[in-house]
Write a structure and sequence with these properties.
CATH topology of the largest domain: Rossmann fold
Strand order of the largest sheet: 1-2-10-7-8-9
Number of helices: 11
Bound molecules: pyridoxal-5'-phosphate
Shape: globular
Distance between the termini: 38 Å
Radius of gyration: 19 Å
Strand content: 5-15%
Length: 312
Amino acid sequence: MRSVQRSEETGSPSLNLPSPIQTFSFENHTFYLKRDDLIHSDFSGNKARKFHYFLTHDFPHVDTLVSYGSAQSNAMYSLSVLAKMKGWNFEYYVDHIADYLKANPNGNYKAAIENNTVFKVKSEELRVKSENVLFIEEGGRQKEAEYGIRLLAKEIIEWQKDHSIEELNIFLPSGTGTTALYLQKTLCDEDVVGGQHPTVYTCACVGGSDYLNKQFYMLEADENYHPTILSLPKKHHFGKLYRENYEIWLKLQQQTGVVFDLLYDPLGWRTLLAHRELLCKPLLYIHQGGLLGNESMLLRYKRKFPLITVNG
Ligand SMILES: *Cc1c(COP(=O)(O)O)cnc(C)c1O
């Protein structure tokens, strides 16, 4: 069983904040990397940001956390950790769980079970209305996410000031787009030297750019707060295996020594390298964690492309 880190004095879990920003080089481009993957061994990445509000506030009437989505989702695992930290039950609704996964639990699914997640199939009614239940949207797409992402924006602005970086591009790949949207929005709210706010660029890993744009509008009507969406010419299907994704993931690891996530980051980096003009200014890439989910993806990749290895 995983144990949860707690700081002695406060009794609250200790998060490694502000997360470090390091310099790396990839394909002869230097970039900065915001290591949100290092926030906490179990509660890391953008889910720690999105769920920060729930972690740091008291919910005296709540004893049960409820959410829904896929059986291997990063958000599900992070919520199981949040529930454990808070001493809540965690009920998670899925459309279905593959027989293979049930028989051979791995990755996020296995870790969520170890955290006592109760899985329910969606036909059972979602218990969202009672006072003791805290309901969280799939992937944490909700207003409360802004709270933790504002702290991310403040960390970035502080760092920018300390390093006298005047113009900054930021890139992060999107699922629901919640992180990118609130990051651009809260950066716009900050006072910055010279008055120029960092520009947030992203790409759609789930659905396409139209879907992502709709997600932005659901959270924020003012277009001035929206990130800029970049895309590749070919359509990409979430969770599908692509040779190019596996190759760039291996290359990233070889050239930087950092393990990136296998679902979002490969498309993120392919999109970024197809828009190299972004790298003419200082560029900050946000590492959004998700490494536990790599376990199941890596098994699938190794089975599909057994001959691919790193060759520089
Ligand atoms: C959840 C997740 C995302 C997507 O975040 P959104 O806020 O839904 O856009 C991206 N990368 C990783 C590693 C994630 O776990």
